[in-house]
Amino acid sequence: MAWLMAAAQTGRDTTIIVNQQRIVVTTHKGETHVTVYDSTDNQLLKTRETVFTNQQEVERVYVTSPFLPSTYTRATALAPILPTVWYAYTSTDSKIGSDANSSSGLHTRGSGSSEVGVTIFEGITPLTDRGRWGQLGFSMGAQTYYTWMHFQPGALLQGEGSHVSFTPAASAASTNRLSYGGVRIPLMLSWQIAPENMASQIAIGISADMRTRGKYRFTPADMGDPIERNVRLKPFGLNLETVVCFGPLAITGRVGLLPLFQTTTGKKAYTSSIGIGINMGQLFRRR
Length: 287
Description:
Blueprint (H helix, E strand, L loop, with lengths): L3 E7 L2 E6 L2 E8 L2 E10 L2 E11 L2 E5 L24 E9 L14 E19 L8 E17 L3 E6 L2 E6 L4 E21 L6 E12 L2 E7 L6 E5 L4 E11 L2 E8 L4 E2 L5 E11 L1 H4 L4
Antiparallel strand pairs: 1-2, 2-3, 3-4, 4-5, 5-6, 7-8, 7-19, 8-9, 9-12, 10-11, 12-13, 12-14, 13-16, 14-15, 16-17, 17-19, 18-19
């Protein structure tokens, strides 16, 4: 058979080399282990392992994290999809997916509103075999982020219990912003092309937010005393997520499906963002 280059059997281990991949079959204590290795730069990197025991089949998936040394990071057949670090332009409006505008009753200002974040963990598992047109996978991660939301200079934000309100300011502001942080858990379906190289990928899914309280600051332009206060935000959020990757470059889009806060007049604040990030797992991925 042309595809079978070599086979060797030692004890209970059987090794088969197929298309520069090493397949090892091991029997131990009634379990049969089938392990596939990729050979890169004279090193064997485990990509997946399947265990057969008690008439059951278990496939083990290996995860990556930008905070693990490369000697301890186990590779998968799929490339990471979530950006390791990112910067995003954010907007807030009273309708889901709308751009910020002063007529929404939220007095938001798109200029300067932004978000920065870091992915601290990502787990990846394949859902299909690698085919000619790519491979379908599932990704779950944990991210932390911080957001700055800017308001019109003449609107003063007031916190009233679980709601907020806006009143005319005595003077215009040089700084009028609300900031908050949080943890985000994305769940993504991805389609990846050429995962063994610099992969092109597209992913869509949802994410759950867990937010801190907001920190509000109003600094008058006439050098008056600044106003600072805590603002109660909705502690949990839900978003629609999309990521498009070209090698290590990631473009992200996010639309909030649940409000960040609600005003006393009944207006609800929904956030959305578009950003750019770097995927360190792709940048330093062995090829």
